[in-house]
Amino acid sequence: MFQTLALNTEHYMSLLSARQKLVASNIANADTPGYHTQDINFQAEFENALSGQTPAVTEPEGLAVKPDGNNVDIDREARLLAENALRFSIASNFARSELNSVKTAIQEGKSA
Amino acid sequence: MSLLSALSISASGMSAQRQRTELLVENLANSDTTRTPEGGPYRRKDAVFAADPSVAQFSSLFDSEMGSGTGVRVAQVVTDTRDPEKRYLPGHPDADQDGYVAYPRMNPAEDMVDLLGASRGYQANVSAVSAVKDMIQRSLDLFR
């Protein structure tokens, strides 16, 4: 049971890092003419990652395109930046409590 | 680890915005310059950005399959081609035979607005760096 949970958390965290990297590129390219926002379809890719597939980069639709061909919405990226960092923090706290419960099991076993 | 390449992507964004700020400040400083090494009055300069996939080179060998982020670089510095502004100053050493001096065609509002944009762009990249730094720190905390 521990193995599956730890593995899922690991997939979740690595997918979050991949997404955060794309958010960082979108922010860096907020003034680049012709640049299109990059993202990953998080839910679908998380299910794929569980079966060992690598995430595909997509260009989200419905964003307003500026006259220079750029469609980065800095507010959207700011929200995703904060959201990814929070989700990552939750996942890492969860992983740590999982590790701590294993550690407790080992230590309590020793003292008996 | 893709988080580390996210740091270099944000760094490339910071560096590009800084270079743009340097050009804008140069424009403001030279708004009354009538002599340049190329001859004639100063001409307004601006940076053109281009997406640069080679920024995260080291890690791209490692996790090219994990969503390729692209950095940014200054591809080109463009010089304003508008005609200089003629001012009637007959006593000026750079005046032509009719007494007109060619001054740079400069709109301070244009440069100030661009400067604000560059500064906000820089701040956005700094926020991205601190969010990613926080995530890396959380991963390291797992070892404790």
Describe this structure in a few short sentences:
The complex is a heterodimer of chains A (112) and B (144). Chain A has 112 residues and is mainly alpha-helical.
Can you describe this structure?
The complex is a heterodimer of chains A (112) and B (144). Chain A is mostly helical and 112 residues long. Helices cover 66% and strands 0% of the residues of chain A. Chain A is built from three helices and no strands. Chain A has helices at 2-28, 42-50, 74-111. In chain A, helix 1 packs across helix 2 (42-50) and helix 1 runs antiparallel to helix 3 (74-111). The longest helix of chain A has 38 residues, at 74-111. The model of chain A has no long low-confidence stretch (mean pLDDT 88). Chain B has 144 residues and is an alpha+beta fold. Chain B has one domain. The longest helix of chain B has 34 residues, at 108-141. The interface between A and B is large, with 39 and 41 residues.
Tags for this model:
heterodimer; A: 112 residues; mainly alpha; 3 helices; elongated; B: 144 residues; alpha+beta; two-stranded antiparallel sheet; 4 strands; 17% strand
| Strand content bin of chain B | 15-25%
The ordered string of helix (H) and strand (E) elements of chain A is HHH
Q: How many beta-strand elements of chain A?
A: 0
Q: What overall form of chain A do the CA principal axes indicate? A: elongated
List the helices and strands and how they pair.
The complex is a heterodimer of chains A (112) and B (144).
Chain A: H1 2-28, H2 42-50, H3 74-111
Helix pairs in contact in A: 1-2, 1-3
Chain B: H1 2-29, E1 45-52, H2 57-63, E2 71-79, E3 85-88, E4 100-103, H3 108-141
Antiparallel strand pairs in B: 1-2, 3-4
Helix pairs in contact in B: 1-3
